[in-house]
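> example.struct
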């Protein structure tokens, strides 16, 4: 809600979070609390075949409808998308399509800088499976994931301080010198079967994320974990962006928002401030 002296254009940017493959909007619990505490309106969608929509098959049209519905339910004013992996690719494709809302002022795209176009679906699916399984195993070994059938209370864990060096910052530079990386446990959400991966990659294989980046005439922040195997074309994506920034978070893998929540939230705060200022 805006104050009596605030127009919708002056209001804080509303945020739509879009999850990755074989997860749900539940992965954004930490980020939802973070941005709402800062005064933003925020929602996390469930894409087809995931979460509350688990009984549907994934299609890109269905994913676009999920974003359309989320945006329609938000207050007037600027909107930013924050997407991880499949959610990042979907957000970029949604922004690039003809007739995308002019309320969109920026996208933070995480874990989605490997262009899927032209790659054999089976091969790319196997790579995605390996990345996801490695990330899941890593979280199991470090106590950062809960078995799907078990809901344990959050644990208190130490904070680790590591250097933070954006490869390229937004105009105006960054005054961030270090970040806090603190593992956090969350309840494991419903995980679709691997059939959804084939469906999703089939829809992605005909779309170039590089082309979508070129078509987006808004600020784009690419955020990757340093250990993410999917960041192999991050420089190509950065070069294709009309107005792009790239941040690599040390110590994190593909699920960067869950593996390094404090670091990710700091970057998210800076990105939203950048989008607000430009809007």
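> example.seq
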């Amino acid at each position: 809600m805006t104050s009596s002296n605030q127009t919708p254009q002056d209001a804080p940017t509303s945020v739509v979070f879009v999850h990755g493959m074989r997860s749900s909007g539940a992965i954004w619990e930490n980020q939802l609390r973070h941005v709402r505490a800062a005064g933003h309106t925020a929602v996390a969608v469930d894409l087809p075949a995931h979460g509350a929509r688990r009984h549907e098959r994934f299609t890109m049209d269905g994913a676009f409808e999920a974003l359309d519905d989320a945006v329609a339910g938000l207050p007037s004013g600027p909107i930013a998308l924050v997407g991880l992996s499949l959610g990042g690719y979907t957000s970029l494709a949604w922004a690039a399509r003809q007739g995308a809302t002019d309320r969109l002022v920026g996208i933070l795209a995480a874990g989605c800088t490997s262009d899927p176009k032209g790659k054999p679906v089976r091969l790319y699916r196997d790579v995605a499976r390996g990345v996801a399984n490695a990330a899941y195993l890593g979280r199991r070994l470090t106590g950062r994931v809960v078995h799907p059938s078990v809901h344990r209370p959050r644990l208190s864990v130490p904070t680790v301080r590591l250097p933070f060096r954006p490869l390229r910052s937004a105009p105006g530079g960054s005054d961030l010198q270090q970040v806090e990386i603190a593992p956090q446990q969350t309840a494991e959400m419903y995980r679709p079967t691997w059939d959804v991966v084939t469906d999703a990659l089939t829809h992605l294989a005909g779309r170039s994320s590089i082309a979508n980046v070129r078509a987006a005439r808004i600020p784009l922040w690419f955020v990757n974990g340093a250990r993410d195997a999917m960041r192999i074309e991050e420089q190509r994506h950065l070069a294709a962006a009309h107005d792009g920034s790239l941040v690599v978070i040390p110590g994190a893998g593909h699920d960067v928002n869950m593996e390094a929540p404090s670091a990710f939230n700091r970057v998210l705060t800076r990105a939203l401030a950048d989008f607000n200022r430009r809007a």
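> remarks
The first strand starts at residue 14 and ends at 18.
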